[in-house]
Specification:
mainly beta; 4-stranded antiparallel beta sheet; 50% strand
């Protein structure tokens, strides 16, 4: 049974940092694309960052580029999202996702999803 479990969300002041963690289990993800999406109240789910589990290439939404970093730890089957210089507009539920195809910003291309973790940035 595939599971993606996010953690690390919380309340932080603007300008602060958080690191989200996604623990993956249930299959081998070495050939998968891993991504983070977010959904704010009343808005559609949007792409944040992605990369293949193995490989150097990373992809970011323009709104987070230069502030967020996606990384993987193969020894722990874990995906991270380091978020720096947080802004109130980053407030959302953040979801980890995995998909067997190439990296994409489309949420419907990802097969597996975590339950989400809330990030709230106060001004």
């Amino acid at each position: 049974q595939v599971q993606l479990v996010e953690s690390g969300g919380g309340l932080v002041q603007a300008g602060g940092s958080l690191r989200l963690t996604c623990a993956a289990s249930g299959r081998t993800f070495s050939s998968y694309a891993m991504a983070w999406f977010r959904q704010a109240p009343g808005k559609e789910r949007e792409f944040v960052a992605a990369r293949r589990w193995s490989g150097p290439s990373t992809y970011y939404a323009s709104s987070v580029k230069g502030r967020f970093t996606i990384s993987t730890d193969n020894t722990k089957d874990t995906v991270y999202l380091q978020m720096n210089s947080l802004k109130p507009e980053d407030t959302a539920v953040y979801y980890c996702a995995a998909g067997p195809l190439s990296v994409t910003t489309r949420s419907d291309e990802y097969d597996y999803w975590g339950q989400g973790t809330q990030v709230t940035v106060s001004s």
